[in-house]
Amino acid sequence: MPCQYPPPRAPVPHLYVYWQIRISEGDVTAAAVVDGRVDEKFQHGGYRGRAWLDPIKLSEGDFTLHLSNVSRQDEGTYLCVVMSGTFPVVLLHNCTVQLRVVAEFTVPTVTTNMTHGGEVTLVCNSYGGSHKPRVWWRNSVDGSLLGSGRLNTEKHKDYVNVTSIVTVNVTQSLNITCTVENPQGNVTSLPYFLDIPPLNEYYAEGRSHVSEAVIGATLPLLVLALLAVGLCLARKPLCVWRAGPKGNKEGTELPLQGRYPEEI
To answer: What is the per-residue pLDDT across 221-247, written as a single tens digit (0 to 9) for each?
Structure first.
């Protein structure tokens, strides 16, 4: 957070700089320069090790406050006060900086939860934001909107986890994206490709299944028929066939008469 003042007229050792913020406990000091030196003993415990000024730039009139590990608890109005330590104390400069912490959602990830027939359920996950966002699904091929899905949010200490679930009836291959709203620019997932085989492949596969079913149903019947014939022949007397009367003309088809072995 910037706080700059032209190179001080007084020597640096006589400068006092205070960065303060008002919290529930009252006004606290985030960082301080005492007699030209950065002094941590005046720092509030919540800022110790996280807030500092660059001692090299103090002589240049640069009193910028650096803050790390920023969270939403750091939001507020910061006051920078620059004074000369010679008596009487003179206020040289003061300014305020409004800090607003904007948490960004991560790039969403898309996964398939389940598939039933032509319906596919897709799940979009993202986290890191500080509010309940809007989420929408698109077909990235033609840009058509697929809807916002069913939105679930989980509030954590410093961020929100968001999940969107959408079910689509897919009749052809699609590239689907999920977009999550962000204050500083929306974030969109990589295209998720849904590959649906052509109908003729289903037809060929169906015919193959039918052929297998027919063969599977017919083969046992043929085996049973052969076993029945064999059993019948094993149990009944063999038939012996003889030619009819000798008076039949040569070359003509002779009628056959059946005789059991005991009649021969």
So the answer is: 666 666 665 666 565 554 444 444 555
Comparison of pLDDT for 55 and 157, the residue scoring more = 55
Read off the pLDDT of each residue in 61-76 and give the average, rounded to a whole number.
88
Contact assessment for residue 192 and residue 176, using Cβ atoms and an 8 Å cutoff? yes
Domain ranges of the chain: 12-99, 109-194
Residue 242, phi-psi category: left (phi > 0), alpha (psi -120 to 50), beta (remainder)? beta
| Cis preceding linkage at 88, omega within 30 | yes
Q: Say how far apart CA 59 and CA 5 lie, in whole Å.
A: 10
Task: Give the H/E segment covering residue 12.
Answer: none
pLDDT for 79 equals 94
CB atoms within 10 A of CB 105: 23
Let me know the angle formed at the C-alpha of 52 by 90 and 63, rounded to the nearest 5 degrees.
40
Residue-wise pLDDT for 39-48, tens only, equals 888 888 889 8
Hey, what CATH class is 109-194 in? mainly beta
- DSSP structure string for 22-84: EETTEEEEEEEEETTEE-GGGS-TTTTTTEE--GGGGGGTB-PPEE-S--GGG-EEEEEEEEE
Beta strand extents in the chain (DSSP E only): 15-23, 26-34, 37-38, 51-52, 66-67, 76-84, 90-99, 109-116, 119-129, 135-139, 145-147, 150-155, 160-169, 174-180, 187-188, 192-194, 240-243, 256-259
Q: What is the CATH number of domain 12-99?
A: 2.60.40.10
